[in-house]
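Students often ask why we bother encoding 3D structure as a string. The short answer is that it lets us treat folding as translation between two languages. Here is a chain of 240 residues written in the first language.
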Amino acid sequence: MIVEVCANSLESALVAERAGADRIELCSELAVGGLTPSYGLLKAVRSKITIPVNILIRPRSGDFTYSDEELDIMISDIELCAELGFNGIVSGVLLENFSLDVVRTQKLKDAAGKLKFTFHRAFDWIENPLDALKKLETMQVDTILTSGQQKSAPEGIDFLFQLKEQSKMIQIMPGSGVNAANVELFKDKGFKMAHLSGTKMVQSLSSKPLISMNSVNFLSDNQRAITQLDYIKAVVAKVK
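And here it is in the second language, the structure alphabet:
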């Protein structure tokens, strides 16, 4: 069984390899579901990690419905991953009605070329997942990372098994809530891959700073933080 570790830093990637993981999904910002890692992190991981590494291509937090400009950014990131010689990418696009955006996802798949392509957990938002599975198979996607449309893969194991049974070519990779206590459930059901981060919060400072740099106001699945024209114009007008 392939064990894929979602690593959010060079340190996490090194730990995953040392622990015997078969593959890494590299990202940043686990708190928002993961974002595309920086160029510096990509270079560091490429030079120090020997096991296969797939890169999350997600330009921002929030939903998975992207503009043409955002898609261009994603394609540029994929091209960089190909130049650096990574194993694959992890990405995907939805329409506003929570169906698969076939056109934009195909563009990402085309940009990936020979790189392995994993459709990420945006799949768990899709309202017609079995139809989406067929479309992704037509696109020759390699893997779908999913929790079986539940909060965790153990909760979604029945639907995960249904997806696995209906899949002809795509590997269904359970992810979210996978750990040493339950991973054998998936192995016993015949899954060939499992995905986990294996993280815990580790103290990094001896005391808390005076103010927090975190803001819950920016954490949303159906809203995006966008700079407002009138807000900035009002400030500029006051000082210029």
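Translate back mentally: The longest strand covers residues 2-7. Keep this in mind for the problem set.
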